[in-house]
Design brief:
two-stranded antiparallel sheet, 9 strands, globular
């Protein structure tokens, strides 16, 4: 079976750097394009950065229809191992469902720190499709970005099968939040039209991390990595990574 063609610009990206690795995960119906600005900015500061493309994303809706959430978990675990092979420290950053997958990862393996951007524990608009098999595809509106001059690579519609995989991984991740104890930096947009801002509060209250912080993104909607606060995210992410990488050589 021939692999589906990747949409130009939606490819995974890897930037080799120092011994501090940063795994970056995009969200549901997104691609590495949505986190490329953050990835390039952190790579420019000397870090090793890897943003894999989740299976079924950045190709076509029919491929997405065949994917199981365990394959997304496997994508992220493989990316973690790739960084762990050459880096002394590994941090994981995820947006929306990418944040969910980062939380799942941190509940099972030793991360030096996690960073989430509007991590998804629920998506209210999708609840009516739970355990349903019709319609086959669900129309998607424009990406939730306050900056009207920004574009995100997404599908115009998503398979109901994939929506149910998202609902499952969110449900399962909630059950394992108490297993997370590494340092955590949680970004959330108070005006998020996809994921309730309370999700980040629930994560903050549930994880056992002694070092954890919530930061509000007052000038961004859901896809904050492409929105007006993206530089603020980079600034706080850089400081968080430096503070939790004692003993590592940091060269920008």
């Amino acid at each position: 079976m021939t692999s589906a063609k990747v949409i130009p610009g939606a490819e995974s990206f890897f930037y080799p750097g120092n011994s501090i690795g940063i795994l970056i995960c995009h969200g549901f119906n997104g691609t590495p394009q949505s986190v490329r600005y953050i990835g390039e900015s952190l790579a420019a500061k000397g870090f090793t950065v890897y943003a894999p493309r989740l299976k079924g994303h950045g190709t076509n809706e029919r491929e997405m229809e065949t994917v199981h959430y365990q394959e997304w978990i496997q994508n992220i675990e493989a990316a973690y191992r790739k960084l762990k092979h050459t880096c002394t420290h590994v941090f994981a950053l995820g947006q929306s469902m990418g944040g969910t997958l980062v939380l799942d990862l941190a509940s099972k393996v030793p991360c030096d720190g996690i960073l989430t951007i509007n991590a998804a524990l629920q998506v209210p608009e999708y609840k009516i499709y739970r355990n349903q098999n019709a319609p086959r595809f669900i129309a998607e509106g424009a990406p939730d970005i306050k900056d009207n001059n920004t574009l995100e690579i997404t599908y115009d519609q998503v398979p109901i099968t994939a929506v149910n995989q998202l609902l499952t991984i969110m449900d399962q991740t909630i059950q394992h939040l108490e297993n997370i104890s590494c340092p955590a930096l949680l970004f959330h947009s108070p005006e998020d039209h996809v994921v309730p801002a309370q999700c980040s509060n629930q994560i903050y209250d549930s994880i056992r991390s002694h070092s954890k912080k919530l930061i509000s993104l007052e000038n961004s909607y859901h896809v904050a990595s492409l929105d007006f606060d993206k530089e603020l995210i980079v600034e706080h992410a850089y400081q968080f990574i430096v503070n939790n990488s004692k003993g590592a050589t940091i060269a920008s």
